């Protein structure tokens, strides 16, 4: 009986480890397309052209590498299939550089927005 309870507990923990996003595990690839500058002090010329983005989901965590991996944002996938990530680090002029990603998983597609101090970009990814 004790062994049966232990096995049941392991199964339950295994299910938790897969997380609510376990069904979403995978590799997603697509485009990061600038849609405009983030503020009036940042001209649109600072935005790169269309670049490749890659996102890997494992359980309720993900890694997103926009702009061919210049930076990597680490984030979470919640039960409503919403993805959120923020990356902050010291930038030039004693200012903090913050990049934010907000997206939504819909089956085999992820759509969202990447916002940096310079740019806003539409993100469209598809499961590979």
Give the secondary structure arrangement, pairings included.
Elements: H1 2-18, E1 26-37, E2 51-58, E3 61-65, E4 73-77, E5 82-90, E6 96-106, E7 109-115, E8 119-127
Antiparallel strand pairs: 1-2, 1-8, 2-3, 3-4, 4-5, 5-6, 6-7, 7-8
Instruction: Give the low-confidence spans.
Output: 1-21
Q: Could you state the order of secondary-structure elements as H and E?
A: HEEEEEEEE
Mean pLDDT across every amino acid position? 81
What would you call the shape? globular
The major beta sheet can be summarized as:
8 strands, antiparallel, barrel
Share of residues in helices: 10-25%
Radius of gyration equals 18 Å
* Number of strand segments: 8
Reported by name, the CATH topology is: Lipocalin
The span between the termini is 44 Å
Second-tier CATH architecture: Beta Barrel
Number of helices: 1
């Amino acid at each position: 009986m004790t062994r049966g309870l232990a096995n049941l507990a392991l199964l339950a923990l295994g299910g938790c480890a897969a997380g609510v996003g376990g069904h979403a595990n995978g590799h997603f690839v697509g485009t990061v397309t600038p849609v405009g500058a983030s503020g009036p002090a940042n001209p649109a010329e600072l935005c790169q052209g269309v670049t490749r983005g890659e996102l890997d989901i494992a359980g309720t965590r993900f890694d997103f590498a926009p702009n061919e991996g210049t930076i990597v944002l680490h984030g979470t996938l919640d039960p409503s299939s919403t993805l959120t990530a923020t990356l902050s680090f010291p930038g030039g002029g004693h200012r903090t550089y913050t990049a934010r990603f907000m997206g939504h998983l819909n089956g085999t597609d992820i759509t969202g927005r990447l916002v940096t101090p310079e740019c806003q970009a539409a993100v469209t990814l598809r499961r590979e």
